[in-house]
Amino acid sequence: MMKLKINGRTHEVDAEPDMPLLWVLRDLLGLKGTKFGCGKALCGACTVHFNGSATRSCQLPVSAAAEGEVVTIEGLSADGNHPVQVAWRARNVPQCGYCQSGQIMAASALLARNANPGDDEIDAAMSGNICRCGTYPRIRAALRDAARATSEARAGEGEA
């Protein structure tokens, strides 16, 4: 049995140490928001936060995940109103929607480390997340909106 801290809760799982975290999340814990795309860390559909960084869960062994904290799309916001999620809805980013949990997790990790990224930084952070529907312009616009909302919220907290 291994203990994993996922979305702020500790879970005990019975899994082989080399089992990818993706399958632990989906098959053993029922957290279906993280998607399987390619299984080779190329598409980004399986992106979660591991110790605050955007990480491909299809290539992270559960034994390594046991040494840190994991946040999935289900744990990003209790009510679905993380600034990135709000911006995604406002800009109608999803088309088919399959890649969106990975896109949102990559975007939120970027904003956590850089509240005001430029286009080059956005492109670099999001480059490994593939959207087969091609909603990249909406993704970039939504990320800019989320960055503005995050900056405004932080400024408002400083004024209080």
Keywords:
2Fe-2S; 13% strand; 7 helices; 5 strands; 2 domains; DNA polymerase, domain 1; alpha+beta; 160 residues; iron; Ubiquitin-like (UB roll)
Question: SSE layout and pairings?
Answer:
Elements: E1 2-6, E2 9-13, H1 21-28, E3 47-50, E4 53-56, H2 62-65, E5 69-71, H3 73-76, H4 83-90, H5 100-113, H6 119-126, H7 136-159
Parallel strand pairs: 1-5
Antiparallel strand pairs: 1-2, 3-4, 3-5
Keywords: 2Fe-2S, Iron, Iron-sulfur, Metal-binding, Oxidoreductase
Organism: Parahaliea mediterranea
Domain 2Fe-2S ferredoxin-type: 1-76
Instruction: Please give the largest β-sheet.
Output: 5 strands, mixed
At CATH's second level, what is the architecture of the largest domain?
A: Orthogonal Bundle
> Helical region count?
7
Output the radius of gyration.
16 Å
> What is the overall pLDDT average?
94
What is the number of strand segments? Answer: 5
CATH class of the largest domain: Mainly Alpha
| Beta content | 5-15%
Which secondary-structure class do the elements indicate?
A: alpha+beta
Can you tell me the CATH topology of the largest domain? DNA polymerase, domain 1
Oligomeric assembly: single chain
Query: Percentage of helical residues?
Result: 40-55%
In CATH, the homologous superfamily of the largest domain goes by the name [2Fe-2S]-binding domain
Unreliably modeled segments: none
Q: What count of structural domains?
A: 2
Domain 2Fe-2S ferredoxin-type: 1-76
Keywords: 2Fe-2S, Iron, Iron-sulfur, Metal-binding, Oxidoreductase
Pfam family, one: Fer2_2
GO molecular function: 2 iron, 2 sulfur cluster binding; metal ion binding; oxidoreductase activity
